[in-house]
Amino acid sequence: MEQPARILVVDDEIGIRYFLNEILTDVGYHVVTVDNGEAAMESIAAQEFDLALLDLKLTGGIGGLDILVELRQRSPDTAVIVLTAHASLDTAVEALRQGAHDYLFKPCEPEKLRESVRQGLIKRQRQTRQREVLNQLEHHLSTNLSEILSTAIERAITPDAEHVVEDDSRFIQQGDLMVDIARHIITLNGKLVEFSTTEFDLVAYLLEHAPRVISPQELAKEVLAYEGEIWEIGDIIRTHIYRVRQKMKAVDSKTDLIHTVRGVGYTIHT
Questions:
Q1: CB 3.0 to 4.6 Å from 176: which of 189, 232, 249, 257, for a disulfide?
Q2: Who contacts 103 (Cβ-Cβ below 8 Å, separation ≥6)?
Q3: Which of 160, 153, 155, 158 has the alpha carbon at shortest distance from 132?
């Protein structure tokens, strides 16, 4: 009988630990919870985990990124999901660069948590299988041929491209404004901005093409998939831009990133 996946939960909030433990044990995982970095290091040294959920802002001397680095050294195949109560994509990006599989904002939605854990465990299985195959090949193949086969094997067992989002293209940033394409999240000065889907797409399009000035007609066609009279399109886009600006000002009243070029269109820059 296959053993349940072993998951380490590191969080200094008892309510979060209880919530994560309940959600994960209910679907059959074996969960170990600890409330500080020192205890996490001891657990990592004592056993190997399939996946770890790490709070980035732990009290004490050892933080979530420290634990992530230790996990990468001791057990490189362990999937890591970082947790943060502060909607800061800068920290999340750093965690992804350090080898984290994903990040979630606290409190987590149960469905998003379960899906992220499921994908993380799939990633671990793929990496473990690849490592085992390569270890076998190394006994029989020269170094150069092993490298060639490594690339071929990785391509063969990687999920379809439509299910994979590369970290380099996942984030778009302009000053203090950052967009996470995969999670449909936008933060300003490290704070989450609650945009509708259309508003998100509008900001992402402006940011992706910055500093070029984008006409209302182009925004309507590319973002809204709408074509119509020039005056009508102008009113529609103007309304969306107004709402975007108001939501940004609600997060940071001093910020005005979207600029109007009269008679031409809109651009976004710091």
A1: 189
A2: 81, 82, 83, 84, 92, 95, 96
A3: 153
SS3 64: helix
* 189 three-state secondary structure: coil
Number of alpha carbons in the 13 Å side-chain half-sphere of residue 252: 13
- The candidate with the shortest Cα–Cα distance to 81, out of 66, 99, 57, 107, is 99
Identify the helix (H) or strand (E) that includes residue 119: helix 110-137
Angle at Cα 199 formed by Cα 264 and Cα 104, nearest 5°? Answer: 140
Closest CA to 164 of 104, 122, 114: 122
Q: Nearest-CA neighbor of 266 among 213, 224, 227, 221?
A: 213
The structure tokens 């979530």 sit at: 64
Cα(215)–Cα(227) distance, rounded to whole angstroms?
13
Strand partners, 214: 266
Q: Report yes or no: 75 and 49 within 8 Å, Cβ to Cβ.
A: yes
pLDDT for residue 1 is more than 70: no
Q: DSSP characters for 30-56?
A: EEEEESSHHHHHHHHHH---SEEEEES
Does the pTM exceed 0.70? no
User: All domains of the chain, ordered by start, with CATH?
Assistant: 6-126 (3.40.50.2300), 168-268 (1.10.10.10)
How far apart, in Å, do the first and last CA atoms of the chain sit? 57
Angle 143-157/110-137 helices, nearest 10 degrees? 150
Is pLDDT of 88 > 70?
Answer: no
Mean pLDDT, rounded, for 216-229: 90
Number of helical H runs and strand E runs in the chain: 10, 11
